[in-house]
Specification:
This protein is an alpha+beta fold. 26% of the residues lie in helices and 32% in strands. Strands 3-6-7-8-9-10 form a 6-stranded mixed β-sheet. Strands 1-2 form a two-stranded antiparallel sheet. A two-stranded antiparallel sheet has the order 4-5. 32% of the residues are buried.
């Protein structure tokens, strides 16, 4: 009896690692600086994510966008992120396996006890480097929200916050929305 195994050969570690992550059985897996990270989200975490989606939903629809947690590739690096929320134009999302951070209108990460520094430091730097126009960090440990904008190679050049929970965070154009943080 012969068994046929599908194999993948790559001289490029980035290609091999990203191939493996796309074929992993669990949908909640990302690569952060070359390390495969399984994502386990608590209901408390999901409550914050749900509040953000509910508040931004009407504007997202008017913009012809969708809000989700689809894959984001960072080509040329050993990173493959699954943000808590990403707002992307609907036409880009259809048929796409992964998008690039600069194809988003907004990326939101909600910290967890186990990976807060990843969201605060690593992802903030990488999202800026890859041109994500707006990055909202909802820091549940610090109980604050911070909006980063105007990305560049050395990071975001504009920071609005941290705003303590209970204080509105303004999402600028194209959203022009005051995000209520009291439920985070």
């Amino acid at each position: 009896m012969s068994t046929h195994r599908r194999t993948y050969s790559a001289d490029d570690p980035e290609a091999a690692l990203k191939y493996a992550i796309r074929h992993f059985e669990d949908d909640h897996v990302q690569i952060v600086e070359g390390v495969i990270a399984l994502m386990r989200r608590s209901w408390d975490h999901e409550s914050s994510v749900s509040s953000i989606r509910s508040q931004t939903g009407p504007v997202v629809g008017r913009l012809g966008c969708i809000s989700g947690s689809g894959d984001l590739d960072l080509p040329g690096s050993l990173n493959w992120y699954v943000p808590d929320v990403a707002v992307v134009p609907e036409e880009l999302a259809k048929g796409a396996g992964a998008l690039l951070p600069d194809q988003t209108l907004l990326i939101v990460e909600v910290t967890s006890d186990s990976d807060g520094d990843t969201d605060r430091i690593v992802k903030r730097r990488r999202y800026a480097e890859y041109g994500a126009p707006l990055y909202l960090l909802v820091d549940r440990q610090e109980r604050s929200g911070t909006l980063f904008s105007e990305p560049g190679e050395s990071g975001y050049t504009r920071t609005d916050g941290p705003h303590p929970f209970g204080t509105a965070v303004h999402l600028p154009a194209p959203f022009d929305l005051e995000l209520d943080t009291s439920e985070f």
